[in-house]
Structure formats: C-alpha cells, structure tokens
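Severity: low
Component: inverse-folding endpoint
Summary: output formatting inconsistent between runs
Steps to reproduce: submit the following structure tokens with default settings.
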C-alpha cells in the first residue's frame, strides 16, 4: 500500500486516539511534518474530497494552493524564459499566461480523469474508451500547443512535488 492509500485510509479512521495500540494518525502526522507545498497538495487532493467527492472540501486550502502554485509557475516561467518581457504589455501577457497555466495545470492534476469513461479507460462493450484511447486520463485542453506543453510540464512538476512529499513522509512514518 502506497503512502497516498495509507493517507486516504487514515482519513476514514473511526478511532483518532494516538497511543500504543492506535496508530491511525501516524500517516496524517507524517504528511504534515514532511512540510513544503507537498503537505498542502496532499490535503487538497486527498483530504478535501477531490478524490472521492463525498463533500465539498475546504475551499480555503484550494485557494491557498492556487495562490502558491500561481507564484511558483510564474517563477518557473521567468526562470525558463517562456516569453520575453521587454515591455509592460509583454509582462502583463506573461503574467496572464502564468496564471492560465497555473490554473489549468492544477485543475488537471487534481482531476485529470477522462469524463466519458470515468477514468477506467473502458467504454461500452468492454472496448477501449475512444476519448482517452484507453488510458483513463483526459487530454489537456487549451487554445494552443505552446500553452498545452507548459500545462503538461507543470502537471508533471505537481506530480513530482507530490511524489517527493510522499517519499519524505514515508521516511518519517518509518522512523516511528
């Protein structure tokens, strides 16, 4: 069982005592102690209902994550020189691009499942879903190829952040 599955299982715990016999909170504590943006990513994706859609979730966590992610995408875009910013208009256009890429990449990362097949990759009559070609993942949709590539790049960055957070949290969990 991976760290994400352990985290989700601990959220549904009926006994939140933390003593010699009850360890349900260990995974949540490890996720919190692992720190950085990964803890917030974990909270928004798994604890705030985006995985199982049982409840609306904490909009404050999502808003905070979007603000932080928008800043990080802007930093990465400037560092990687996605666009030239010679004039004020260029800078404004660049900021608009960074914001759109941040919003789209976060939305896709949080819920990038194919809608027609529900993420299973299987359509009617046990054939591969034509919308996702059997992958279960929705395609990134946007107006142009340049922006689509940047969104895919940032989705990959989010996944890397989450994987490194899970690794740190799992190491902390192993120390207990």
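Observed output (run 2 of 3):
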């Amino acid at each position: 069982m991976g760290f994400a599955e352990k985290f989700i299982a601990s959220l549904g715990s009926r006994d939140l005592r933390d003593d010699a016999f009850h360890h349900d909170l260990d995974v949540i504590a490890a996720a919190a102690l692992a720190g950085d943006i990964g803890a917030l990513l974990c909270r928004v994706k798994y604890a705030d209902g985006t995985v199982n859609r049982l409840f609306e979730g904490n909009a404050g966590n999502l808003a905070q994550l979007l603000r932080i992610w928008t800043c990080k995408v802007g930093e990465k875009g400037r560092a990687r020189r996605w666009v030239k910013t010679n004039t004020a208009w260029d800078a404004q256009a660049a900021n608009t691009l960074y914001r759109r890429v941040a919003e789209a990449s976060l939305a896709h990362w949080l819920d990038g499942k194919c809608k027609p097949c529900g993420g299973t990759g299987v359509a009617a009559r046990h054939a591969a879903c034509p919308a996702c070609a059997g992958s279960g993942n929705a395609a990134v949709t946007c107006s142009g190829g340049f922006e689509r590539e940047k969104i895919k790049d940032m989705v990959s960055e989010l996944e890397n952040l989450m994987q490194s957070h899970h690794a740190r949290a799992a190491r902390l969990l192993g120390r207990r």
